[in-house]
Design brief:
Layout: H1 5-11, H2 15-19, H3 26-45, H4 54-69, E1 75-76, E2 82-83
Antiparallel strand pairs: 1-2
Length: 84
Amino acid sequence: MADTPDQQAEQSLMPMQIAHHALLTPREKLDLLHALKGQSQGVLEDGAELGFSIDEIDAAMAEVQNEMAQGAGSFENLEGKQNG
């Protein structure tokens, strides 16, 4: 059975939740936010409501980029590869 739009909205993350997600690397956060922005622009052109704005996505992306510039979120993963 398919989820209703309200159920899908409850299951999805808001832009700042993605930016602050502890289990994602900064690169993964930016990738998700870029994808979300691209999908959101198409949805907004169709006149649908998202529950957040493109400006919120941009603010979340800026926050992740700022953290990366300050060195936050840069760590070695379990395989010894540099993340961030």
